[in-house]
Amino acid sequence: MSSHVADNEAIVRRDVREVWHSSGDLDLIPDIVTDDFVYRNPLVDEPVHGPDDYRKLAATFRDAFSDIDMEISEMVAVNDKVVTRYTTRAVHDGEFMDIEPTHNSIEITGIIIDHLEDGKLTERYINDDALGLFEQIGAIELP
Question: How far is CA 129 from CA 37, 59, 87, 88, 107, in A?
């Protein structure tokens, strides 16, 4: 593995640690993403643009969930692209998408595709188990 690819993996791991863990430091987001960073997730109506909006998104998730732990299960990096398979565990103890806190523990899996340039994230595509999330917080009941 080239040092460039290893550096890209390290950047993604830093994002996961600082942004998507309860104990992380959201003030580091400008060091991790570019000014024109774009975040795409089917749960979010419109793409999120730039570090400020990315911070707001992460803060909203942290307000809705505590004890957030995002565990990387697998990571594959090629050139300026990193693909990560992960599991997120947390407790739903704040309002989330108009759903009152249930205090239920959640566990969801997903895949992230990141694009990087000059040592920062430029674009993220995320697809996770939203159906499972909504079932676990009692918003829907599966047949």
Answer: 23, 20, 10, 10, 9
